[in-house]
## 1
Amino acid sequence: MVVSACAPGVFSSLSLAAKKYGFLLRELIVRDFKVKYKRSVLGMLWSLLYPVLMMCVMAVVFRNVFRFSVPGVSYLSYLMTGLTLFNYFSEASNLAMSSVVANFALLGKVYMPKYIFPLSKCLFVGINFVLTLLPLYAVILLTGTGLCWQHLLLPYDYLCLLGFTLGMALLLSAAAVFLRDLFYIYGIVLTVWTYLTPIMYDISMIGSAPLIALLRLNPLYQYISFARTIVLFHTTPAPRQFLICALSALLALLGGAVFFRRTQDRFIYYA
């Protein structure tokens, strides 16, 4: 009841801030790009090279050493699809967690909506995510996986992933103000989350039915599975997959926004 009552106010304020503070949002994103690629020889090319290099390393380890494979599909395409989506969530949520704490000095000088900081991080990493689609599609074409009209449905999956990530970003950035240990704890959580998400292995390799059912509760598994259904099997995801992706994104976004809004007035006491 409390969440549903707060929902209209949360989303209306988000929409208003997006219009009113659009210029500031753009400047924060531009600043992040300048900081990230400052004095880098390759610059934004790292957005293309990093996922490819990660895929190569993981493919050598898990396909050649541990003998992982996925029947009927290209393992490289399977791996790259999972890596691309999970890396977006991992990087965006990690950067967003420290976004409010890192900008305390700016908050004390001028008024601005505090959630613009985690939002800017999610959008900044989102631009890099769009760039990583280039090497993903290069792998899809080079491995003979091929394309299909269902690829037009992938933006739905990406928007749901963005919503889920933004919800987690709002939650983490607010919680980190009160608990700075979260910066260290979340690194461990992300490591565990990586192995609990079928990125480099097929979920059918797990023999325990209860464990498989538990892993399917992972929202990131649902987003990756949605993409793989299209990319690898050239089929339209089931209506249930559409619904699960949307609901998990909505619940995360709503929960994160409500928590952030209820705690933001106390941020100044922990600067």
## 2
Amino acid sequence: MNKKKIQENNFAFIDGQNLYMGTDSDKPSWHVDLKKFRVYLRDKYKVSKAFYFLGCIIDGNDKLYDEIQDSGFILKFREHNPAMLGVKKGNVDSDIIFHIMKLLYQKEEFDKIVLVSGDGDYKMLVDFLIKEYKFKKILFPNKYFASSLYKKLGSEYFDYLSNENIKRKIIYKKKTP
């Protein structure tokens, strides 16, 4: 009998500011190559859709937004009152949590969630997804950017993008002329 290999259908949610700040504040500082990162998520975690959340649209960042989308991410922005732009922190945590809960409520076809952030605000969501068998992994930007709230999380549920075996696959390398 021919057994077909079942392909997972996982979704990733990236807290863009947390990812950037986490790699930028690492020692030494480094940055993620978004195309390599998207391939890594697809190959390693079977991510079919990857949502990249940013705090707000900033004039002059069109090149960055194009790069994120060209790399295969679905770009999502946090809605802000126009009077607060530039004053208010991006804070996409509640947007990501709401988006995931909406997928669950609407019984969207997916297997598990991969979360990219070190923010402790996601801890309750992570615990819930684990209980519901809907959680794959949380990827912390670096070891120092992971909230202490995750200390009791089993190692099967987290990894660090700064681990050398991961970092070498996704690091941005300047092209030499």
## 3
Amino acid sequence: MNIWLDGTVVEARQARIDPTDPGLALGDGLYECLRARSGKALRLAAHLARLHAGARALGMTIPFADKDIGEAMSAVLAANGLAHGLLRLILIRGPQGPDWSAPKPIPPTLLITAGPAGPEPSTAKAIIATVTRRNEFSPTARFKTLNTLDNLLARREAARHKTDEALLLNSQGRLAEASGANLFLVIDGDVLTPPVAEGALPGVMRAEVIDRLGAATAQLNPADLASASEAFLTNALGIRALLAVDGKAIGNGREGSITARLKAAVS
């Protein structure tokens, strides 16, 4: 596999990240996942806008212009013989001294990988995670940081229950998001999703769906799942119908008409 690292395409086995980089030891960094078609990253501007916002929050400056990053993504796709695929952009702090509480003002490390995207996401069944909750008060909940262990623990809990996803509650016991996606419910014809203030990641696909459907943000409780006629999950891979949670069907337990139309529109 070939990757792009700080301006150069290299073989992955030749890439080197400085071991003093707190991105490795502390997860001091950010990432974005993007789908690519015909050699181009989809929704690139929106992903980079979120990356810039996260970098500002962490006190980093992205060391390449957006245009250069877009060209780098096309280059790494080509280097791996991919026209379509999944791109991952990783920004980490950069090598530091022993005091990680006062990072040096040096350019961070930027890494881009590319691989096959796999098939379009199928329908999903989920559980409500019990091993962890979403901290809606943390400023890092607004960005895709490298500290994703809570999401990983929830996804592993889902796997143990032989389901596809886990829904995360926030500290108030309300629905926030799924371990790897944003959540939408259709209730009495209204398309609703938890607000960012409730712990929902401001997802790029989430924003597009809100715009396309005129969806509203609303506080949602686990009990609201029983009132939903359909539900779906969104992330960079696309739209996925959510058919059941904790063994209880959403609506009639099949993909709903709104979800089907939305999938066709954004595919």
